[in-house]
Amino acid sequence: TSVAFGILLLALSLKKNRVYYAARDGMAITLYALLAEKSDSEVHELLNQVVEDDGQRCTPLIVAARHGHDKVVKMLLSKFEPDIEQEGTVKFDGYVIEGASALWCAAGAGHLNVVKTLVKSGANVNHPTKTNSTPLRAACFDGRLDIVKYLTDHLADIHIANKYNNTCLMIAAYKGHLDVVSFLLEKGANPDEKAHCGATALHFASECGHVAIVKELLEYLVTRPEVSQEERIEALELLGASYANDKDNYCLELAYQYLHRTMEMRYSDPNNIIIKKLAKPVPAYENWVECQTLEELEAIQLNHNALHMESLSIRERILGTHNPEVPHPVIFRGAVFADNARFDRCIDLWLHALHLRQLNKVSVVKDLLRFAQVSLGRYFVFSQMIHVGVDLTFSQVEDVLAASVLELERNKRKNSKSKRSKNGICTAVS
C-alpha cells in the first residue's frame, strides 16, 4: 500500500511538473492538452500549487508571466481559473523577490502584452510583494515607460513606497530612467519624499551621477510655489557651479548658462534685487570674489579659470564648509592643475580640501596619500614635483605634516576609546 501511495505521489508530481514546464517554456497547446481532460479539482490543484525551480517558487501562471508567454497567460485565464493574485518567489537582477504576483513579474520583466492581459483579466495593479513593492515600482526599476504609463492609466498608485519608504520616483532616479522620472513628476510624484535613510530622489540621482535627472528634479523643484525666489536661484546656481568642476559631467558652457540665468533672476524685480551674501574669499580659490552683476559675469565668460574659481566659491557659499560634498570638485580641479604641471595651484586646492575634511572630522588618509605616495608608476604631487625637479616649499610640507599629526592624534584617541570599551565589556562579562 505504501509503495502504491508513493507511486501515486510521484505520478501527481510528474503531472504537476509537466504542467509547470509547459507554462514556463511557452507551450500553450501542450499545456491545454495536459489540462483539458482533467477534473476541475485536478486543474485547480495543478494551476495553484507552486513548483520549486532554480531557487524560485512559482505557479504556472506566474512563471509564464515572468517569461513573457502571453499566449499561455491568455489561454490559462480564458479557459481555466487560476488564482490571478497568487504569490510566488522569483529572482530579478540578483534579488530574490518574495510575494510576487504574476502582474509584478510581467511588469518587472518588461512584458507589456502580458501586463495588459493580466490587467484586463482583473489583476490588482497595486498588489505588493513582501517588501511592499508594487508592479509599478517593478516597471520603474526596469525603466519601462510604456508599462508605467499603462499601469497608471489603470489606477496604479504612484505614491506607494516599499518598506524602506523608497518610492517609485526614487527608484527611477536611482536607476537613471529620465523619461520615467519626468512622467512621474507630471503625475504628481512628490520629489521631497524621504526614504528611511533620509535620502530624496535628488540624493539618489546625485549619488549615481545621473546629471540629467538632477537637472530635471531641480527644474521641477524651483517651480514649486512653496520655494522662495532665493531658494530657486541657489538651487540653479549650485547646478551650474557643479558642471564647472565635475569629472564625469564637465561642461563649462552649461555652467555659464545657469550662472547667467540665475544672475538675471537676481535682478528680475528692480524693487527686490537679491544680492549674494558673500563669504570671506578663500585663498585656495585665488581669493576670488564672486560676480555680483551681469556685467561682471559676462566679463569672465571666456575666462575658464575665472569660471572655475567662481563655481568653487559658489558651491562653498551655498553648501557651507561642513558639507561633505564640497571637497570633491576642489580635488578634481587640483588634479587638473597637477596634470598641467601647475603644482602650486594643485597643492593650494588639495590642502584646502584636506582642511575641509579635517574640519568635519573625516579620515584624510587618502588625501594625505595624494601628496606623497608613488603607486604603480604614477607619481603623486610631491613625488611628481621632485621627479621633474620642482622645489617644494617648507610651508607646503609643514601643512601636510601638521595634517598628518592631527590625523594620528585622532586615530590614537579612537583606538584608546575602543580599548576602554573592550575592557568595560570584559569586566562586565567577568
TrEMBL record:
SUPFAM superfamilies assigned: Ankyrin repeat (SSF48403)
UniProt superkingdom: Eukaryota
Keywords, alphabetical: ANK repeat, Repeat, Ubl conjugation pathway
Gene3D superfamilies linked to this entry: Ankyrin repeat-containing domain
ANK repeat segments: 98-130, 131-163, 164-196, 197-219
This protein's pathway: Protein modification; protein ubiquitination
One GO term (biological process): developmental process involved in reproduction
GO cellular component: cytoplasm
UniProt-listed PROSITE patterns: ANK_REP_REGION, ANK_REPEAT
Family: Belongs to the fem-1 family.
Protein's name according to its UniProt entry: Protein fem-1 homolog B
Source organism (scientific name): Diploptera punctata
